[in-house]
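Q&A log
Question type: sequence-to-structure
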Amino acid sequence: MTKRPFTTSQKHQPCTNTARSRSKSSLSSLKGTSLPKKRPIATAPSMRNPLSTNGTLDATETPKHNNNCVIMAPSRRFLRPATVAFSLEETVDNLNKEDLMKVKRDDSKYVKKVNGEHLAVYYRFGDPALEYKVIRDTFIRAGLVKAPETGNDFEFNVQWSRHLKNHEYYKLNKYQKVNHFPCSQILSRKDSMHRALKRQKQRCGKIEYGFFPESYFLPQDQETIYAKLKKGKIFLMKPPGSSCGRGIEIIHSVEDLPELDEDGKCKYLIQEYLPNPFLIDRKKWDLRIYVLVTSYNPVRVYVFDNGLVRFCTEDFDINSNSRFAHLTNFSVNKQSGMFVYNTNHEEDDVGSKWSIRGLKRYFKRYGIDDSDLWRQVDDVIVKTIIAVEPNVCDHMKRFMPGRRSQSCFELYGFDVMVCHTGNHSAVAARLADAQKVSPPSTAPASFKGSACVSDSESSISFQDMPASAPATSRQEKINLKAYVIEVNVAPSLAIGSALDKHIKQHLLTDTLHIIGIIPYNRKRVGDQIEMMKKKREKKRSKLEKEQREVQQQILNGTAVPTKDEEEEKEKPPHTLKDLQNAKFKLKQLTTKDYNLICELQDEEDKMGDFNRVFPTADQSYAHLFQKYSYNNALLFKWLNTPEERQEMLLKKYENARKRAKKSKPKTKSKSKPKAKKSKKGPA
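Response status: OK
Response body:
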């Protein structure tokens, strides 16, 4: 884990090396300008359902777009470009040209001047169904403009949409960002995700990949399912491509299974029911963890520090057929009359939906040691990403050659179920002691009762715990285990309560800030792309001509072997085998190495409320990769290099680039010679 330099939360102080921390100090020196006040995060009205009649949250208005400038976040390294800074604080309006020049002369790189339409930073939604208000407001607050309707679907800097078609990924340039990797939907389908995890389980063993429930497919595994049902096993039947809990049914016996069609295709995933969920107030719950993947080669994974805890609305009973007792999906439980909306984001541990920070405070209040649980959550997330890494990398090589692979990012929603193992009599006694310590008169009516093990012998419950019980330094060790239930590649970003708004605002702000959106000159980049196309066509015709000549020489028996082009290229200073050697030290950086390292550093400076879980300074995940790539090994070696040597290597490369830039001859523009003026005297 790495420390976060700053956060968008107002409770944390930002770091001085980012644009967010410089905003006030840089602009307060400008005469005639004033900083806008912070807008308080609006809370929903105090009612059962905080949604208004038109289906939108009764919150602050959409922030105004700043037509004059966008805020820029500089990089640590001089060769790296500044990127658009996203913050919950509004940008400064009505800055004139003179003020812009003053800010530039201060060398703060705080404001990016926008003179014409071709330099504007455009955002675009590929599907109206995904045009969430929280995403649109985040774009507008940072100064982005909606892409014009010119008939060109690729006139944007950042696009939020569904997956592009494979051939559309090839059209992206290195300055554009889209919110999906090619083939990343392999995690969204329940059948393909479990096949990928099963392959890894067979290759690496159950100890490494035992964090997902056993799953089967109809009709291929029909006999196995029948045999387990006769032994008393309970299953959940899920359509592979559905979401929001649609089509999920509980299977207690063979009679509950559906009839198969004549074609015999797999239409359902049959998943073993986890019989020992960890209960709170007799209710089942799960975690919605937000995970950001900024690259698959090398793999870079970040986990958001705050997420959602979703509760069922009925008490857990393993023999019940009610969906409200077994399914934790918000879209399912909001239809129940027992659902309790959260109307204040500061009270994030009440109602039918909590925040993860509220859950951590809940554990701490009753002395429950949950440190191992969160380590497990990070561990299962990294292993799930590694399981699909070969598929995504293969598609990137085919449809996104070169640096176009950095044009994608992915925001996943992991659904994690928490179960328990072992003897819990000591825990039940500990909870009973907490109940005795707390005065019964101060406990809320909804929390009155006694602490004990739930009716199901295999499920322990923090049922009816008094909210006013004092925090204790004593911590009970409970064997908790995290299971990955499913993964969403398009998690819902709709706002249904004040808690949703608070969490998802920070999530989107930090996500768009960390990916690094770079303004660029569209005309210049378009000309470069056309020039590269002409060069490729010219090279292709030349290669075809050489191939015809070689074929003719082979037929005539006069062919001469030639050196491979790759052998003539300069070899890198170190290889994959060198990087995997513990005693090897980095000696020199290539341009590719420098860019990969700087990307990692830039993301580390802009993490906000994200924590980096991969790459790490230890090689505990290296054996899980089907093919450990050079880029992954380079970042591992870099994280194990002392900071002094890191700075020395970076400075060495930057000085070499400076010398090369100075020694490069300047090309003088060919201009027409000026006509000489005739020196004629007065008439």
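Response note: The first strand starts at residue 69 and ends at 73.
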